[in-house]
């Protein structure tokens, strides 16, 4: 594949993954039922992805920043960005899988300051759609990061095109060949010399 197309593909993967992560992180990932000691009634609430897994929005922001950084850095700098993108993708995938499998735990103290929450029993019912979207974002992030790590060192930079253009415009244009002097040119030069107070015959005599 052409290096410029590879760069474009990596940027799109990072940008799409970041956008999906931020979108999924702001949605409800789980319905939570809190059973408090009698006679207190149970409490029902919903937790967003950012509340269950704070790394989700952070990873989304990192992926969007990486999409921009890929244009600004070169060589080993791109490799570092690629490693960070892979890490963000893995974090997204891990958070999504833990939510889908029910292994994420919720501390009652994190649900608020209502009476009896510290002695409550918490039941988490995870949803499927938004965590799966975060998992997809993680997969795209890992793919984009691996592409950057493996191929990014040879991609063109943002300034190379402008540097090449500037170097070409900075070259001096070749001078046009001077045409031979004609009798008309000498006649006009003589009149200009007379207008300026100079006797053109003196120059001719010296020659």
UniProtKB/TrEMBL annotation:
Disordered as annotated region, ranges: 161-207
Keyword Cell inner membrane: no
Pfam families, sorted: Trp_oprn_chp (PF09534)
Key words, A-Z: Membrane, Transmembrane, Transmembrane helix
Membrane-crossing segments per the record: 54-72, 79-97, 128-150
Domain of life (superkingdom): Bacteria
Bias kind Low complexity: ranges: 164-175
Compositional bias of kind Basic and acidic residues: 178-188
Protein name: Trp region conserved hypothetical membrane protein
């Amino acid at each position: 594949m052409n290096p410029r197309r590879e760069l474009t593909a990596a940027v799109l993967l990072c940008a799409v993954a970041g956008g999906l992560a931020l979108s999924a992180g702001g949605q409800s990932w789980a319905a939570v039922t809190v059973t408090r000691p009698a006679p207190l009634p149970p409490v029902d609430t919903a937790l967003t992805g950012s509340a269950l897994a704070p790394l989700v929005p952070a990873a989304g922001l990192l992926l969007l920043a990486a999409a921009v950084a890929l244009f600004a850095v070169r060589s080993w700098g791109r490799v570092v960005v690629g490693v960070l993108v892979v890490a963000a993708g893995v974090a997204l995938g891990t958070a999504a899988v833990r939510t889908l499998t029910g292994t994420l735990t919720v501390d009652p103290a994190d649900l608020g300051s209502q009476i009896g929450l510290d002695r409550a029993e918490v039941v988490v019912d995870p949803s499927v759609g938004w965590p799966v979207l975060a998992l997809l974002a993680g997969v795209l992030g890992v793919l984009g990061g691996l592409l950057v790590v493996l191929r990014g060192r040879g991609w063109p930079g943002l300034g190379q095109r402008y540097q090449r253009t500037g170097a070409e415009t900075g070259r001096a244009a070749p001078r046009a060949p001077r045409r031979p002097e004609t009798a008309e040119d000498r006649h006009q030069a003589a009149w200009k010399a007379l207008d300026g107070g100079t006797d053109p015959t003196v120059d001719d005599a010296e020659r």
